[in-house]
Design goal:
It is built from 4 helices and 8 strands.
Length: 162
């Protein structure tokens, strides 16, 4: 069972940091985060579905996911991998296109760093998003960026135990 009480969020300046501990080994959490088939099952808030996911997991490779909302609207999530350290860290850069301020998880022109830390058989996942400006962070926050990621991480926890 995951420990949401051990989760913490921090919002300051141009940054938002979301942390969650998963009751699963780091390699399993890494696999769920990097395998397109797994990503399709959990990425996005409750009620959303993913129609496509392409993940070219290499520096300079592209991540592209199409997320469909319950009202039918499609939200693209597009980024480029800037750094990959197997089982430890992934850095994405959101594409320049403006689109939705949340970017379906990778906001436009934002840098998103996902860290995976081993903690006695559990995994501390830290999602650190640095926005291009404080105004862009505020727009993403108003569009439920943190709430959406908390939902997605809950869905990720569920998929880790199925």
């Amino acid at each position: 069972m995951d420990a949401p009480a051990q989760s913490a969020n921090s919002i300051a300046g141009r940054e938002i940091v979301i942390k969650r501990v998963f009751d699963a080994p780091r390699e399993l959490v890494w696999a769920a985060w990097t395998d397109s088939g797994h990503i399709m099952q959990w990425w996005g808030p409750a009620g959303f579905n993913n129609e496509t996911c392409e993940s070219d997991l290499r520096v300079g490779g592209r991540f592209h996911l199409e997320m469909r909302a319950p009202d039918g609207k499609v939200y693209p999530c597009i980024g480029t991998f800037r750094e990959i350290v197997e089982s430890e860290r992934i850095v994405y850069e959101g594409e320049a296109a403006e689109g939705h301020p949340c970017g379906a998880g990778i906001p436009p022109r934002a840098t998103v760093t996902v860290s995976f830390a081993e903690q006695a058989g559990k995994t501390l996942l830290t999602l650190h998003t640095r926005f291009a400006s404080e105004e862009r962070k505020q727009a993403a926050s108003a569009a439920r960026f943190v709430v959406s990621w908390e939902d997605a991480l809950g869905r990720l926890a569920d998929t880790l135990h199925t």
